[in-house]
Design brief:
The chain is built from ten helices and ten strands. With 323 residues, it is α/β, with parallel strands linked by helices. Helix 2 crosses helix 8.
């Protein structure tokens, strides 16, 4: 029997749609603060500001970008966790949600105090050989480490950094003895890599690293990423090489304080996905070997929970401690 819609029912339905749309428009704050948990000038800051420009135009709101760096992003995200859940404060961050809590240096609960809004990009972790070694693939490097326990030196951007997590998982899975060389950040680490002060470097992708690879001064051995990079199609992921648990990358996204209305979370998610689909923003990300993502908020939350659990297992098994 065909469904008959009465005029009064149709009018009521249309009224509800219009009311919902009006309510959605009214609850979006006129001024939104986007807290970037890293210093100004870096890749994450550049991406966050480009995204903020897109969102401002799409939402008809003013987005104020505020850099609150420190403690590997924890300071900025703590400010987000403690902000009023009214949609007027958002955060742009990565590792504080999935790594720092396992190291006892997070003043908030990442799974309870922060609401994932949308994944924005993942920043691959590159494993590269320096001029100190002639090896050109990961298997050869691991064979060398087995033959000379402790002789292979692997530099990361710091104790308990993501690069260190990758090293510890790889060291355990491959049963090799590799010496960890932790640095305080990436600048001196890269300079020493080019000078051959150690055999292996792990760091996030970026323009400076890409330039050194193109110049032949650093040789990529593997990449931590969901898929091979368009710029390095011959470089296998760690998962492809048999180390799926070490196949880690830094996933950046937008977050809100827990308790932010679901209608706002959904609105921001839709607009972020729209911004990520724009050719100019995608090109800006891909030019630095950072890969745009997007997707639903609940899928992002599931990915965060999975990373959180995996990192916790590695940190506990390796006995990793923060500085």
């Amino acid at each position: 029997m065909p469904l008959t819609v009465r005029p009064r029912s149709l009018a009521a339905a249309l009224g509800l749609v219009l009311l919902s749309a009006t309510a959605s428009a009214q609850v979006v704050p006129k001024t939104i603060r986007l807290v970037v948990a890293y210093p100004s000038g870096g890749v994450s800051d550049v991406v966050a500001r480009a995204l903020a420009d897109k969102l401002a135009a799409q939402l008809g709101s003013t987005l104020v970008v505020e850099n609150k760096a420190g403690a590997s992003g924890t300071i900025g995200m703590d400010a987000v966790a403690k902000a009023a859940p009214d949609g007027a404060t958002l955060g742009f961050s990565a590792s504080p949600l999935v790594l720092n809590p396992h190291l006892g240096r997070s003043p908030f609960d990442p799974l309870k105090d922060i609401a994932p809004v949308a994944s924005v990009m993942y920043s691959p972790v590159l494993l590269m050989a320096t001029p100190a070694t002639g090896t050109r693939d990961l298997r050869s490097l691991l064979d060398d480490a087995r033959a000379r326990p402790g002789a292979v030196r692997w530099a990361t951007s710091g104790q308990a950094s993501l690069g260190h997590i990758v090293l510890e998982e790889l060291r355990s899975a491959a049963k090799v003895d590799i010496t960890h060389i932790p640095y305080k950040g990436g600048g001196q680490q890269l300079n020493d890599a080019l000078g051959g002060q150690f055999e292996v470097l792990s760091t996030n992708a970026g323009p400076t690293v890409s330039a050194q690879i193109q110049a032949g001064k650093l040789r990529p051995l593997a990449v931590g990423a969901p898929a091979r990079l368009e710029s390095l199609p011959k470089v296998a992921t760690l998962a492809e090489l048999g180390f799926p648990a070490a196949n880690l990358s830094s996933q950046f996204g937008v977050f809100a304080p827990a308790g932010t209305p679901a209608i706002l979370i959904e609105k921001y998610n839709v607009e972020i996905n729209k911004a990520l689909a724009s050719p100019d923003l995608r090109a800006k990300l891909l030019a630095t070997d950072n890969v745009p993502t997007g997707g639903k908020a609940d899928a992002f939350a599931a990915e965060i929970a999975s990373e959180y659990e995996n990192n916790g297992r590695i940190v506990k098994a390796a006995g990793i401690k923060a500085d």
